[in-house]
Amino acid sequence: MLLEIIATCVEDAITAEKNGADRLELITAITEGGLTPGIGLVKEVVKAVSIPVHVMVRPHSRSFVYSSHDIATMIAEIKAIREAGAAGVVLGMLTAEGKIDEASLAKMLEWTGAMQVTFHRAFDELEDQFEGLRTLQKYPAVTRILTSGGPQPAPQAIPRIRELVEQSAGSGLKILAGNGLKWEIIHDFINQTGVGEVHFGSAVRYGRSGLKPIDPVELRSLADSIHQ
């Protein structure tokens, strides 16, 4: 079982690694669902930890429908993140019709190189997630989908997440479950969905607030529990 933790600064990254995180998702603007962090922060986090760092590539929080200027910005960010030595990027883009924007995705994948690519929770705004899964399976560079199984928190979408796990089996595309997970329910959630990776943000922070630092005791309890 792999545990991914959101980091918003170097201190988060160090605390997460010391207390059992297997991978980081590095973002800024956590209250907006995560935006691209500054390249200086990316470089410092990559230097500070030895676990993989996956960096959010999202230029604004208006929507997941992007203009040509947005796409150019995202490609520039991918190039810089790759040069900084990050292990992966986290991105997602939709058409105005609520489908995956394959044209824009393909343009970005030309620049990701050997980095892993997570398609983020834009996936949860798709009209048909199973069609979206089949679309992403056409792109071997996309290695995982971060999803809560729809717009609701992940614990409320267990049947959907289980079906996504089943339909992605053997394809090389992993399902990373996130949003609304808490360590108190994590064993039941994993057993019922079959996911191999889980994603935590505010639930491992002081007061379970996205604007507070990571609570090392809370994170260590979670990590020890799921790594048993």
Automatic annotation (TrEMBL):
<dbReference type="GO" id="GO:0005737">
    <property type="term" value="C:cytoplasm"/>
</dbReference>
<keyword id="KW-0963">Cytoplasm</keyword>
<dbReference type="InterPro" id="IPR036822">
    <property type="entry name" value="CutC-like_dom_sf"/>
</dbReference>
<dbReference type="GO" id="GO:0005507">
    <property type="term" value="F:copper ion binding"/>
</dbReference>
<comment type="similarity">
    <text>Belongs to the CutC family.</text>
</comment>
<dbReference type="InterPro" id="IPR005627">
    <property type="entry name" value="CutC-like"/>
</dbReference>
<dbReference type="Pfam" id="PF03932">
    <property type="entry name" value="CutC"/>
</dbReference>
<protein>
    <recommendedName>
        <fullName>PF03932 family protein CutC</fullName>
    </recommendedName>
</protein>
